[in-house]
Amino acid sequence: MKQLAEITRRWWGEVPIYLYALGCGGVVLYLWSRFDIPYEGAGSTTSFQIIYTVAIAWFFFDIIYRLIRERPARPLAWAKKRYLSAGSLAAVIASAPALAMCAILIPVFSSLKAMIPLFTPFDWDVTFIAWERTLLFGNDAWQVMQPILGYPLITAAIAVFYHLWVLLLYLGVTVVALSGSVNDDLRRRFFLSYALAWSLVGGLLATMLASVGPVFAEPILAIPDFAAQMEYLHWANQQVPVMTIPVQDTLLESYNTNDNGLGRGISAMPSMHVAVCVLFWLTAREVSKTAGRIFFWFMVLIWIGSVHLAYHYALDGLVSLAAIWGIWKLAPQVFKAWDALPLPWSQPALRTNTVPAE
Questions:
Q1: Taking the model in full, what pTM does it have?
Q2: Contact 173, 194 (CB under 8 A)
Q3: Which has the least CB within 10 A, 131, 204, 316, 328?
Q4: Membrane-spanning residues where (predicted)?
Q5: Over the stretch 253-269, which tens digit does the pLDDT of each residue have?
Q6: In angstroms, rounded to a whole number, what is the distance separating the alpha carbons of residues 324 and 117?
């Protein structure tokens, strides 16, 4: 009974997250219907399978790590008590809705990202290029970085880290949902911010500021300004495999064939790579200083990589940083208002007109 009460309490505290997610789902269903876009259920299935697999892998990693660290005298009894107790199982059940939301969010976002050209043309690239050159005294951001980063081994290494980012979408959210180091207030703040990030930053802002980024500027918009950058990246790929090159080719092919599957769609401003990294950094620094430092430098690396690998203008990351910071500050206010509401199952205090005896 105690575990059921704990699950109910946590779910009730997270209701604003799921109400918002349902609202976004309604908007998405309308857009799919309005523009006759078929939804590919395979994307959601794949996303659920990845999170399920990652959760199991994290579970075994946690067991091995703690066995080595704590060295219990009776490992099986210790593992049973820690991982199969009613409290542990309740924590997993309580985390299920948040993880399900994350699994659905990624393929839905991919579909919406691919739909941007239906709403608006990609007409912001010229503006962002001009703004960036104004800030950098006539230079493009990649040119400023090139003397330091312009070596095939460095480029290939950055591309590997850029791909490791995807672990945040599956392993990262799983750890936030299940880790005992993340308290309930921080956890729900993260997941509401996560939903807001994908919908507002990756959806609304990406549509309002529609742009394709340096890598697609020439093939889609006939803007040749980044031909030298792409020439370098393809040359570097011939020396040492650069993981992002085949991905960029696939994205362009998907754009030309109207493929809106998982991981598809083209959008530069704002950078969701940077946005997600900012969110994990803000969360990690609430857990520990060490975790905060690690995720801060990972965020910086991804931001630099997004420019060096031609996915983004430097401004894309700056806008993402500002947007996520605002969302992070907003989320606690939402829960403060929600927590002020009376619990639906609470009993009001009885009031009587009984006069105390003299």
A1: 0.91
A2: yes
A3: 204
A4: 12-32, 47-68, 89-109, 153-178, 190-212, 261-282, 294-314
A5: 888 877 655 556 788 89
A6: 24
